[in-house]
């Protein structure tokens, strides 16, 4: 008995010590976080604003990953709006003498890179220098860096300039091999989100829309690179087709770079440009530190609120992605806030749940009755992402935004063959004719298919109805450019799906103008989580394992993994969702 009590006491002491250690760790984490956030940054004379590998441009506060399971992440998250404002401010800041772009890989979407590039192009009008340096440079990083006055490359470096391509993965044979049945119902011949489950190749319609989309984006991107580097269009195509950037000497020969030098030599060139002596220190300041140097706390007075909506659209109340219950609360709070005089709704979404999209749209329609509502598109505003924009007074799109995809689909999996092969059968007892219209083992009954088809068709008509109201076009006009087809922002403007091509900053200025505001400040919603909230959010979520996997393999690979094994892609719900994402890597 003595031994038993001894063991119990030892376990209790161990638990107490463990809790004490965790509590100490927790308190220290909060203290260090608070210290780092309160640190005052001073911009020294002859400073160079630096965009480097630690610059992580995000579209929304909900994309921040600074919780307990991301403590090793040293990248500084910067909202694209803040990044653009910082570059505009640096243009007139006497302490900032130039910009240095030192990112081999850029953590930003294509529209965000466009905005950064345009802001840097404007910065150059001040007469200040813009230089860039690279080692193993990704295509997206080079797209930004090519705006520089001079581009320097490491003698053993490379520039991965290759153009755009997309690869679609198909699961039809896989499903048949393992006895998985998939019932597909869709409206729109271009609604290709379901193709991986019913085909083994890209349909002619999907190939057409993908080809048009990729060529639109590449034309916009390649034209700017060639113009900045002063390369003839025909020669530039040869350079890209031949992958000359992969060989540093060829990259230099064909004007992708101006000189092959080491990083230390690059820094000496900047020091010389600033007329610094050898013993003088080169003052580089990152985007995040520069923003901290002038950022202020909550201000009083009139506000233009920017409500960020980034990710897939779902039912529920989570913080990440666009969850209907959460966003309904955000929208109602903005509607009641008398200090908020106008709202800019920033959408960066490939869509998702039709039901959740409809709920969010309704609340935005109510908001619009009391305050100006302007929409700004990021990388994606497709399917449900486009649907929720239909309350806008005005829609701004980026030239490369993937826009439209006005279509609806439902995908319903069942496992009859694989179950039967393994000796699993089922029998049904029911009270009504269609009590079991769907079964995981037996699939959907003919009546069920007919019913879901009507639901899909009804949802599509409702989708088009709201588009006709907002875009002031007939059902036939929208149906002709709908059918699930995705357009670039440039073409979306041509066919009337958006009002203007412009940035988030442009949308904010228009919203302020529409609200007749002469003096105002911009407030971002939702608010970023505090370290305290981040930690407890990590412990409260079900998907800790998923977060760990995502950190290990990266977001892009995790999204592919989701398509294969995650239930979100195979749930029996009517969806408004894009079939793919396009990234310039």
Automatic annotation (TrEMBL):
It is found in: Membrane. The active site is at residues 191, 383. The chain crosses the membrane at residues 12-32. GO terms for molecular function: serine-type peptidase activity. Keywords: Hydrolase, Membrane, Protease, Serine protease, Transmembrane, Transmembrane helix. The keyword Glycosyltransferase does not apply. It comes from the Bacteria. NCBIfam families: SppA_67K (TIGR00705), SppA_dom (TIGR00706). Belongs to the peptidase S49 family. PANTHER family: PEPTIDASE S49 DOMAIN-CONTAINING PROTEIN (PTHR33209:SF1), PROTEASE 4 (PTHR33209). This is Protease-4.
């Amino acid at each position: 008995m003595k031994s038993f009590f001894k063991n119990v006491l030892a376990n209790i002491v161990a638990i107490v010590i463990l809790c004490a250690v965790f509590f100490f760790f927790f308190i220290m984490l909060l203290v260090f976080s608070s210290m780092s956030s309160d640190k005052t940054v001073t911009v020294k004379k002859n400073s160079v604003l630096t965009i480097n590998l630690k610059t992580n441009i995000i579209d929304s506060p909900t994309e921040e990953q600074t919780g307990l399971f991301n403590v090793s992440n040293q990248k500084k998250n910067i909202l694209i709006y803040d990044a653009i404002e910082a570059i505009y401010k640096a243009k007139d800041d006497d302490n900032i003498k130039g910009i240095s772009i030192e990112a081999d890989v850029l953590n930003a979407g294509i529209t965000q890179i466009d905005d950064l590039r345009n802001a840097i192009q404007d910065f150059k009008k001040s007469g200040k220098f813009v230089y860039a340096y690279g080692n193993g440079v990704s295509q997206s990083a080079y797209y930004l860096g090519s705006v520089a006055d001079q581009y320097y490359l490491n003698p053993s470096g490379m520039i991965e300039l290759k153009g755009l391509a997309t690869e679609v993965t198909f699961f039809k044979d896989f499903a048949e091999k393992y006895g998985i049945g998939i019932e597909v119902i869709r409206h729109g011949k271009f609604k290709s989100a379901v193709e991986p489950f019913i085909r083994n190749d890209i349909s002619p319609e999907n190939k057409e829309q993908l080809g048009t989309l990729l060529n639109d984006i590449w034309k916009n991107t390649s034209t700017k690179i060639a113009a900045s580097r002063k390369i003839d269009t025909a020669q530039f195509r040869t350079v890209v087709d031949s992958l000359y950037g992969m060989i540093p000497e060829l990259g230099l020969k064909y004007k992708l770079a101006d000189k092959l030098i080491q990083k230390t030599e690059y820094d000496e060139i900047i020091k010389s440009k600033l007329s610094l002596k050898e013993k003088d220190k080169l003052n580089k300041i990152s985007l995040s530190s520069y923003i901290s140097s002038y950022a202020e706390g909550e201000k009083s007075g009139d506000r233009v609120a920017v409500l960020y909506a980034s990710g897939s659209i779902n039912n529920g109340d989570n913080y990440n992605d666009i969850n209907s219950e959460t966003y309904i609360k955000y929208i109602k709070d903005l509607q009641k806030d008398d200090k908020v005089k106008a709202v800019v709704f920033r959408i960066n979404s490939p869509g998702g749940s039709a039901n959740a999209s409809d709920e969010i749209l309704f609340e935005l329609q109510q908001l619009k009755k009391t305050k100006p509502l302007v929409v700004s598109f990021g990388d994606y505003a497709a399917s449900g992402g486009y649907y929720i924009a239909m309350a806008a007074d005005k829609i701004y799109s980026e030239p490369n935004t993937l826009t439209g995809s006005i279509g609806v689909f439902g995908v319903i999996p069942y496992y009859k063959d694989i179950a039967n092969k393994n000796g699993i059968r089922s029998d049904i007892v029911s009270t009504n004719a269609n009590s079991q219209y769907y079964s995981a083992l037996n699939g959907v009954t003919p009546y069920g298919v007919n019913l879901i088809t009507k639901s899909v068709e009804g949802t599509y008509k409702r989708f088009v109805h709201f588009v006709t109201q907002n875009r002031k076009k007939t059902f036939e006009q929208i149906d002709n450019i709908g059918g699930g087809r995705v357009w670039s922002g440039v073409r979306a403007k041509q066919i009337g799906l958006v009002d203007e091509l412009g940035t988030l900053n442009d949308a904010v200025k228009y919203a302020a103008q529409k609200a007749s505001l002469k003096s105002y400040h911009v407030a971002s919603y939702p608010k970023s989580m505090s370290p305290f909230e981040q930690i407890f959010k990590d412990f409260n979520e079900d998907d800790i394992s998923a977060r760990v996997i995502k950190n290990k393999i990266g977001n892009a690979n995790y999204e592919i993994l989701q398509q294969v094994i995650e239930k979100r892609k195979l749930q029996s719900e009517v969806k408004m969702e894009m079939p793919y994402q396009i990234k310039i890597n």
